[in-house]
Amino acid sequence: MWTVGYLHWIVAATILCHVEAYHTHLTPLPDHSNHSGMVLGLSEMINLLAPKTLAILVLNETKIDQIDRLTVMVHHHNIPTCIFIDTENYFRYIRDNLKKSVDTTSLLFSHPEDMMEDIAERRLAHRLSLYIFYWGAKNVPTNLDRSLLREPLRVAVITNPRRNIFRIFYNQAKPNNHGKLLSANWFDGNDMTFKRTPLLPTPTEVYKNFEGRVFTIPVIHKPPWHFVKYNKINESYNGTEAVVELSANSTDMDEDTFTVTGGRDHNLMQLIADRMNFSFRYVAQEDNIQGTAMGIEENATFSGALGMLQRREVELFLGDVAVTWERMQAMEFSFFTLADSVAFVTHAPRKLSEALALVRPFQITVWPLVLITIMISGPILYLIIALPYRLEEWTSGCFARAKRLKVYRGPSFYHLQYIQEMNYGGYNRATGIAGTPQHPSLDRCVWYTINIYLRQSATIPYNGHVARFFSILLWLCATYVLGDVYSAQLTSQLAKPAREAPIDTLGRLEVFVERDGYQLVVERQSAFQAMLANSSGVLQRLYRITQRQRNNESYLVSSVEEGIRALVANPKRAVFGGRETLYFNTKRYGAHRFQLSEKLFTRYSAVAVQYGSPFLDSLNEVIMRLFEAGIIEKITIAEYERMFGSISGQFADETALTTKPESTEVESGHSKKATESNEKLQPMNLRMLQGAFLALTVGHTLGVLILLLENKRVYIGMLGKRSTVKLHSLIRKIEKPLRRFRCSLD
Description:
- The structure is a single chain.
- This protein is of the alpha/beta class.
- Among the domains are: 21-201, Rossmann fold (3-Layer(aba) Sandwich); 367-431 and 440-495, no CATH class; 692-745, no CATH class.
- It contains 27 helices and 24 strands.
- An eight-stranded mixed sheet has the order 2-1-3-4-5-6-7-8, with helices on both faces.
- Helix 18 (560-569) packs across helix 19.
- The chain starts with a helix and ends with a helix.
């Protein structure tokens, strides 16, 4: 009995010591086994690494008590941990953290090859995820596939060559992307020291200098970002130009090659390469397109150059690559290299017909008001003159009231000279004018106001003060407001012919698309095609109209340059694209031919890299420095000056001239003359006054017709009897309204 009790006391004391060490976070009891050194070494390495979160995946026969001891020691360093024994839950945890852009460090107790293939298939290889494999053997596994260890996967393998000695191998210790595990650090558990700190080299330090690494970059001919000249492989070329193969694995000498002769993005890439010490070679994309998303959103695949980047066939892509939400699901983008606006280009406003120059000085909203003013001026004058007499007649029964309403009358308006003038000498002194009212008729007031507006001489129909004041007001309006303003506007429009309203807004473009059959032109499989297809509002209505057309695929072109050429051939088109690209291409073909619209919205272009690329931070640092220093803007301005010459008159070099379209070269002289003629004021000529001659012709024709009707007797004898009777009846029908109108005027 005493022996059994003594054994119980020993077990209890041992358990008490372990519990005390657990709760007080002291160093465990001395244990010289290899497992105790493993726990101590891993905890110190994790402490030096200082991750934000630690995920532990246990798949082999590691003892649970060792994991518990490791967790306790990690918690002693205030590092949150999660332990997984199921791979699906672990992968779901990593995927959720990547969506939230959370850095995650994983400690995996499993064979590296068993996990790396699943990580690559699930697209969990990212610079934010570090996978640390504990490999208890002396050396790293020799059967690891290096292709699985390539970027952007970050893998560290810990080996145990001797007791309490641990070595750390890292696949991103060098920026060469060979997928080789290199020794990055070691830990000596005897004296608790590391070879270097930090535990692993940071990506910013590793990828600060690429040590001559060669990048593969797709290129697309898209001025002014890249100028690509396609030629045969046996042609000679300038040694300074970048000549590259059509594809990386191309060995057929009959295939075409191409030469990158320049461009803004080409110069920018050369500057970045010099700064980060890498070289690059261009490869062509078969369809020369950037690419759009195909399939469902989560697992969408891209075509074109972006598809090559998504499949990790190339490292990066620079060439006016717009940043969109769909593209960000499959790749990542650097700091923007261009803040551009989306716009569209249509034909330049054409000259309006000069035959309508007489009625064009005022807008369509002004002419109705002018006509209404002319029409109501006569009745208003009549009311001013006749209203006091009407009121006097209505109030004749009340003498007091009639006295208050009685107004001053001037001398009799039917003066002898005026009556003789208006009645053409038909005034009878004896009888006077029978039935003449005390105030002028409405016809006379209307005729008087028309004479004022037509700037003709006329006698005021009434000598009252109010009537005179109103007549002076009409004369001022007709002389200074209508006459002078109209003359000034007409003179300016005859000196510089008027043009139609420009198509510079989406609302105006929608009207022309529906009414005149204008067609939208967009670069095939670009960000702008996705913009039209996935937009709302006016853009969505425009896209639906385009889809209802017979050939709804005709609005897609291979490049913006091709769309500008199509616009030159058929003015009833509108080309969508980046404002900088459109401006550059319109300037190449003659800016006077095109009308650039207002800014629709801002879009950003950047360098596209692989999803989870480890050198994105280093690339961003270089691009931001170039942007803040204004070097990117200077490169853009230099490219424009190289193509079109500076303000002082210097023109482009031979390389730029090779990219100039043939149509521009043929019509260079005519385009120059047309531009000069549009910029300068043209002298007035008779052709500009054809509208005035047309109006004069109509007036003379009407006058001749009236003259023939009044002198009917001259022509009656020349006609036959039947025609005479018919003409007499026709003339009588026409004379009746004319006589009534004449009597009303008299």
